[in-house]
Amino acid sequence: MHRINASIRVDKVRLVGENIETGIYPTRVALEMAEEQELDLVEISPKADPPVCKIMDYKKFLYEQKKRDKALKAKATKVVVKEIRFGPQTDDHDYDFKKKHAEKFLKEGAKLKAYVFFKGRSIVFKEQGQILLLKLAQDLEEYGKVEQMPKLEGKRMTMFLTPKKTK
């Protein structure tokens, strides 16, 4: 938080801002100048030597800062990751059904995490799992691009797809 008015406890300050001559002033004089303009003396850079202060309406400054932060937060995009799970022997009907969902997720702009989960001894079908994921990547080529190729981690083989930017 900024120090304002009487809470500034140094002998001299560098004064900047509108309607004043920039320079080094005794703190008492700077406070008087701020009072004359019915504004606040706000310490902007306390680590400088001498500290930099500005004459301004502090409440208005805080309001503007809050508004600016809110606007920046609204612009920040939130990345949503949707998951689709397959088994190593997923049949065509189930595959098509899940592919439609994957297509919808990518169209909505969400990242897609597709994975094949190997139960028990099904880990011997690693190649089938990889083929399945690569087929999915190929089928969804027009909607998204592969961010991470299929990779086996423990009992699951995972692949990430990111949506293509639409004009």
Task: Explain the overall architecture.
This protein is α/β, with parallel strands linked by helices. It is built from 4 helices and 8 strands; from the N terminus they run ββαββαβαβαββ. It has helices at 27-36, 58-75, 92-107, 126-139; strands at 12-16, 23-26, 40-45, 52-56, 81-86, 111-117, 144-153, 156-163. The strands form 2 sheets. Strands 2-1-4-3 form a 4-stranded mixed β-sheet. The chain has a 4-stranded mixed β-sheet with strand order 5-6-8-7, with helices on one face. Helix 3 links the parallel strand 5 and strand 6.
Overall tally of domains: 2
Measure the end-to-end span.
Answer: 43 Å
CATH evolutionary superfamily of the largest domain: Translation initiation factor 3 (IF-3), C-terminal domain
Mean pLDDT: 88
CATH architecture of the largest domain: 2-Layer Sandwich
Biggest sheet features = 4 strands, mixed
Strand fraction: 25-35%
Strand order within the widest beta sheet: 2-1-4-3
- Count of extended strands: 8
Helix content: 25-40%
Quick one: CATH class of the largest domain?
Answer: Alpha Beta
